[in-house]
C-alpha cells in the first residue's frame, strides 16, 4: 500500500548517494538509507500480496530478478550483521589517437597473384599532428560479491527501475493498492 512512497524515498537517497560520492562517510549513510527504503518497498509488496493470497506473484518477481535479491540481501546484512561497505574503486580510461601516414604505398599484384609493381596514394589532407593521450579517471564504488559489471550506482539505478516495474505490475494485476485507492481508504 505504501510501496510508491518508499520508492520515492529510495530515489531521494539514491540522488544523495550520487551527490556525496566524494564524501565516503556521507555516501555510506545514504547507501544505508537507500537500501532500507528500497527494502521497505519489497516488504510492503510482500505483505499486501500475502493478504490477497498472491504471495507466489511476489516470490516469482524476486526469484527472477537477481538485482532485487542481491540488494535486498545487502540491506539485511546491513541491518542484522554489519554495515554494508562497498569497495571504493577507480575506473581509468586511456585514449590515444594514432596518426597514420598521409600516403600509402601499395604492392600491386595481377589476378593470379604475380607482382606487377608498386603504386602510391597522394596525401588526402595535411598530416594530423599527434595528440596528447587523454586519461579519464573517476572514483566509484563496487560490491565485491556482485557478479555483474555494474558499480553501486548502476546497481542502485537498476534496483529502482525493477522496484518500479514490480509495483506497477502488482497494481495492474490488482495485487498492490493504487495511490488513488490508498487515498479513498484513508478518507473513509
Measured distance between first and last alpha carbons: 16 Å
The gross shape turns out to be elongated
Uncertain segments of ≥5 residues (pLDDT<50)?
181-188
Task: Indicate how many domains the architecture comprises.
Answer: 1
Structural class: alpha+beta
Query: Share of helix among residues?
Result: 40-55%
Number of helices: 6
Mean of pLDDT: 82
Count of DSSP E strands?
4
Strand content: 15-25%
What do you see in this structure?
By secondary structure, this protein is of the alpha+beta class. It has one domain. Helix content is 53%, strand content 15%. It has 6 helices and 4 strands, in the order ααααββββαα. The chain has helices at 3-19, 24-51, 55-63, 66-80, 152-172, 179-187, and strands at residues 87-95, 105-109, 115-120, 134-142. A two-stranded antiparallel ribbon has the order 1-4. Strands 2-3 form a two-stranded antiparallel ribbon. Strand 2 (105-109) and strand 3 form a beta hairpin. Helix 1 (3-19) packs antiparallel against helix 2, helix 2 crosses helix 4 (66-80) and helix 2 (24-51) runs parallel beside helix 5. The protein starts with a helix and ends with a helix. The model is unreliable at 181-188 (pLDDT under 50).
Amino acid at each position: 500500500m505504501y510501496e510508491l512512497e518508499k520508492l520515492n524515498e529510495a530515489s531521494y537517497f539514491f540522488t544523495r548517494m550520487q551527490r556525496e560520492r566524494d564524501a565516503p562517510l556521507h555516501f555510506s549513510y545514504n547507501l544505508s538509507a537507500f537500501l532500507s527504503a528500497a527494502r521497505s518497498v519489497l516488504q510492503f509488496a510482500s505483505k499486501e500480496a500475502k493478504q490477497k493470497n498472491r504471495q507466489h506473484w511476489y516470490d516469482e518477481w524476486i526469484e527472477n530478478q537477481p538485482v532485487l535479491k542481491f540488494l535486498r540481501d545487502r540491506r539485511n546484512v546491513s541491518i542484522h550483521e554489519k554495515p554494508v561497505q562497498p569497495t571504493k574503486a577507480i575506473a581509468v580510461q586511456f585514449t590515444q589517437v594514432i596518426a597514420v601516414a598521409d600516403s600509402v604505398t601499395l604492392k600491386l599484384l595481377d589476378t593470379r597473384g604475380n607482382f606487377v609493381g608498386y603504386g602510391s596514394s597522394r596525401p588526402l589532407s595535411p598530416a594530423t599532428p599527434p595528440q596528447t593521450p587523454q586519461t579519464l579517471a573517476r572514483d566509484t564504488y563496487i560490491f565485491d560479491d556482485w557478479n555483474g559489471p555494474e558499480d553501486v550506482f548502476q546497481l542502485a539505478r537498476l534496483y529502482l527501475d525493477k522496484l518500479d516495474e514490480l509495483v506497477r505490475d502488482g497494481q495492474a494485476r490488482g495485487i498492490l493498492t493504487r495511490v488513488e485507492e490508498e487515498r479513498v481508504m484513508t478518507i473513509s
